[in-house]
Amino acid sequence: MEIGRILRASTQGFAFGCRAAQLENPYFGALVKAEAKPNECIYGMIYNFNVDDDPLVRRLVLAENLPMSAIEDQRNNRLLPIEMSVLTVGYNRDGVVRQGLPPRPPLNLDPVQLVDDPDEVKLFTERLSYLRLVLKSADAKIPVEQLLVAHIRAVHQLRGRDDAWAINVIQEVIELLRGDYATLIPTLEALSDALPTLPILTQYE
After folding, report:
1. Is residue 108 domain-shared with residue 168, that is, in the same domain?
2. How far is CA 11 from the centre of its chain?
């Protein structure tokens, strides 16, 4: 499912744009992939949405009794895309999935797809080393705690409510954040709310 195209990219992440009509499917914490080549894609997690204004919007917000037709026309036909920022967490080259930074970033206008196929989600999330990349991104103004929680909750669902996987993830997060209680405690509290049936959380509440 194509949800946009690359606007700009670096080794550590990329931004892509889409039309308002494409905004129904991507979500905060979603796993996405940029199709860099026929045999290569780059995986990442959406951590921010940005909707810029333009001169027409500035005029429209001052209008009284703004008709819905004008709003829909502006949303569907505006020249500025809705922008989403993505943190790179891995890549697939020639069918081999690796977690970590890719050899090169995607290029402008490469398509971006939502990774919502359960088999592909399982393939990428079976190993958990990509969580280290996420946690080390705290200095990049990324809301790490909320990003982790949203991602874990979404993957838990896509994996068929896989509690064993979720428990392994939480244990990995605890290990990685053992020396950073300022991040660990709110992360576990948020996970406790998001996944209340997992017993491992009760001992840390």
Report:
1. no
2. 16
